[in-house]
Design goal:
Two copies of one chain form a homodimer. In chain A, 48% of the residues lie in helices and 23% in strands. Chain A has 143 residues and is α+β, with helices and mostly antiparallel strands. The first copy, chain A, binds a DNA duplex (25 and 25 nucleotides) through helix 2 and helix 4.
Amino acid sequence: MILEKKKMFNDFAASKGLRSTRQRDVILDVFLSTHQHISVEELYLKIKSSNPGVGHATVYRTLKLFAESGLAREILLHDGQTRYEHVIAGEHHDHLVCTSCNSIVEFEDATIEKLQEEIAARHGFQIKNHKMEIYGLCSNCRK
Amino acid sequence: MILEKKKMFNDFAASKGLRSTRQRDVILDVFLSTHQHISVEELYLKIKSSNPGVGHATVYRTLKLFAESGLAREILLHDGQTRYEHVIAGEHHDHLVCTSCNSIVEFEDATIEKLQEEIAARHGFQIKNHKMEIYGLCSNCRK
DNA sequence: CTTGCTGCAAACAGTTTGCAGAACT
DNA sequence: AGTTCTGCAAACTGTTTGCAGCAAG
């Protein structure tokens, strides 16, 4: 699964004529070792600890490439930071975001996915991707 | 409908001990006269044309109040600007966003709404609100 | 050796904040 | 009169960009 992702990026890089660099390898490794909607800053710090001398800008630029290559996806929650999550082929999950403790639960629902396609078709839309977030109080915070 | 909204804000203001000011009235009027996901900047310019001397900061501060009072809702698309849309009681619509021409089509689907509630219930979540955006190409841009 | 990639710092854009004066109650 | 609200400008935050040097092909 990690290897697949690396291959995915290599293929993308090859098709775009991008060069293979140490930084991109490191950033990909660290990104693949994370879970759950990591922010650019968080990733940057993680990288820096094991690999100082990788700049902010490179992390931003590289994450954009990951998103473009299809292995990551940009998500915007309401905290003013751009976050990235892994794209898992053939799977799409959405988010339940707790407005009290900021925890995030993922879920997937095939029926919703299907309805989305129907709606898009009804409006002549060709779906590229979508996102859904439900905000509320998680079970812990309701107590 | 516009009157309802004004009342809604007045009630909120009263309950919070907020003062009634010319600026807030103007901003509410202009906001209520708009449609479709207006950005703070757009709203600010609209206000300024008929009512110079209303500051950026006040528009930001006031829109936050509108959101808090329940008559507006903050939405984040992928263009780096915070936008606000009207909250219509008992109705929730979602967005089809064209990634080519940036047009936005609203839609509503009761089945999806119901599924969301089921999902939230299954995870012990108490829904406050949610949003769903489908990105893709609109019928015009597909041609 | 050519061109793309990187790190740095400066630039940017959107948003927030501190403060003195104005306005509401 | 007392306190909230406002406008302004400055500060902030996250992100992007220009550029000289470095490194991959």
